Amino acid sequence: MGTLMELPQLVLLLFVTITFLQSGLDKVFDWKGNVSWLSSHFSKTFLGAMVPLLLAVITLAEIATGICAIIGIYGWFTGSYMNFALYAGFGSCITLLMLLFGQRVAKDYDGARTIVIYLVPCVLLLILAG
Prior knowledge:
- By secondary structure, the protein is an all-alpha fold.
- Helices cover 82% and strands 0% of the residues.
- The protein has one domain.
- The longest helix is centred in the middle third of the chain and has 28 residues, at 51-78.
């Protein structure tokens, strides 16, 4: 089991689990709605024609990150699988950087700013787990 000094890592793993699994599963269960909205969002960019492929990549990255976080939570309690906290931190940062890139390309600066808010705790998880 993790120590009290490692409690922030557990909280951040819970944050990553909730954030990325919810987002990934939303994309799975509302695929058409997400493709429709994103196709419109990126219609005037070079990414417009690639929305379904890019959405699939982001969806897989989000779900994989959430699963790594769940395994990391299990590892926090059992003292095993601690590398999965690091994988969750790295996966969350890479996924958010992909999303940030898309928002910047779409010139959605408010959306990009929101992603940076999510990036801060993910970088902190990466530091704590590393």
